[in-house]
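Here is one chain, start to finish.
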Amino acid sequence: MRALAIAFFALFCTVAIAGAAADYFRPSRFVSYLGGDEGASSERYRTARVERGPIAKTVAATGTVQAVATVRVGTQVSGQISEIIADFNTEVREGDVIARIDPLSFQNEIERSHAEVEIAKAALVKAEVAFNEAKEDEERKRRLTAKGAGSAVDFSKAVAAKGAAAAEVQNAAATLDKAKAELEQSELNLERTHIRSPVNGVVIHRNVEQGQTVAAELQAPTLFVIAQDLRAMQLELSVDEADIGKIAAGQHVDFTVDTFPGRRFRGDVLQIRKYPVVKENVTTYAVIASAPNPDLALIPGLTALATVIVESKDDVLTVPRAALRFRPNDAPFSGPAVWVLGPSGPVERRVEPGLSNASFVEVEGPLRAGEHVVVGAKLKPNSALCALGSLN
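Its structure:
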């Protein structure tokens, strides 16, 4: 049964091809192909309108939406978290307290430092009294020695005692300065139990819980991550090495994110980072673009599909790229040209191509908006049917 069907189909294709050949070589049909009426010619060719409007050359890239700057907030003192004031998405201002560490041990340290200062002050007073006594004794023995009533040995001992007393005063003064510095450090540590925001922004991450003990001896732990001004985000794009040379600062960027599929966001290229990123033998470069976010719709971490507008023009004539590739009857190439479907069939129009993208190309020449240019020949139905049958 299958063999009979194949034989029947082969006979049908033979008859169809013979009919098509007879039709093709019929004089009137031949004239139509080379230059018959426009209706017959339009049945043989696919056409497209010449349009006037904008055209843009673009580079596609993917990337992520990021905050312009993020600050990791840690602690410079160790202790137990006694209070958490800021949470995820909390808006904070510079200087706002966002958490507190139990201050009791630091208050005790301040009291101890105050006592050390008072002890040092008393020691300084005692050293100054001893110095004054040594100074008076040295003066008295100087006078006695000058009158011949005192010995030179006693005078020398008095001079040495005065010098020792002066050194004790200096030591006591230095001890007092040290005690004051330790008191200032203790007061500073107590102030640092109030963990404050260093910038204006929004808390995007909290890495601490109330009651948790944090240690800052070796490395300051990260307690919060604050993103500065989410109304002005940035886009970090990965651009292939083949396209990076086309990118320049100031170019416009259109991008979309999956969470808002029908909305387009716009920005501008700010920076091309020249450090290469090689992954699986593919080299890319990071391109940073602005991403204005006045309504806070964008959030950090969103994946973006972006189009960088490398070059654009407004109000120019454009045709499909296929129009420049079409040649009727294997016509020889004589320069860039398109073929307009006129009353006598395709007519060549020499043009100068300009800016192009994946679909369209700018052209200059004897064309008008609204004309139809040929982009290809239509497939004959009989040939299509036979080709389809041959697949069986």
